[in-house]
């Protein structure tokens, strides 16, 4: 009897997570939107900064563009895998 009770208790604790998975988020998390906006602002600031800075300003702009591309790919992946709608 005790084994059956323990088994029932274990199933009760585990079953909700497996039977009722969390629904996907409705949209991109606010933190991701905030990061995307910050990257866009940094890109604009660097575009207007002037000077070459030994090619480092252009390289920083390139890195920001790559980061924005990664965020876009991450969002596409999350939508394809039903993590967000």
Brief sketch in words of this structure:
This protein has helices at about 1-20, 30-50, 55-80. It is mainly α.
Please characterize this protein's 3D structure.
By secondary structure, this protein is an all-alpha fold. It has one domain. It has three helices and no strands. The protein has helices at 2-19, 30-49, 56-80. Helix 2 (30-49) packs antiparallel against helix 3 (56-80). The radius of gyration is 23 Å and the shape is rod-shaped. The two termini are 45 Å apart. The mean pLDDT is 85.
Structural class: mainly alpha
Largest sheet: none
Q: Give the number of domains.
A: 1
Compute the CA-based radius of gyration: 23 Å
Total helical elements:
3
The helix/strand series, from N terminus to C terminus, equals HHH
Q: For the residues shown, what is the average pLDDT?
A: 85
N-C termini distance: 45 Å
The percent range for strand residues is under 5%
What oligomeric state is this? single chain
Shape verdict? rod-shaped
Low-confidence stretches: none
- How many β-strand stretches? 0
Q: In which range does the helix fraction lie?
A: over 70%
